[in-house]
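Give me structure tokens for this 131-residue protein.
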Amino acid sequence: MISQMNLQQADQKYLDTCRNALATEQAKSLSETNNWSHVDKAQVHIDWNILYQEMALIVDTSHPSSPQAQALIARHCEIAARFYPPKKDAYIGLALFYEENADMKTYHNTFHPKMVEFLGNAIFTYANKNL
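Here you go.
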């Protein structure tokens, strides 16, 4: 059952599909919105900062599929949707981007050393159940 899997167990071909979906959705959104000019980027960063501080408190005590973690990921998805409403594969692609982009990994892991791994698995679960 896919909801019991974590991101690290997913098929690599599927993960490539997710990476491509993210790139495609972002490029389309950027071109259609004048580089996301509709987004209050300062507020987005504030909101993500608050969210990641809250999430850091549960990384060691909650499973990424727990109701508490999934509620936080629902907020994460709502913030991400300010740019464009992500489809399932693109949202999973975002989790991969956090892991594979050195700057994003460093940023997220400043909140907790296991934040990127936790986010990836929580996003994977959320996307498969809700998107």
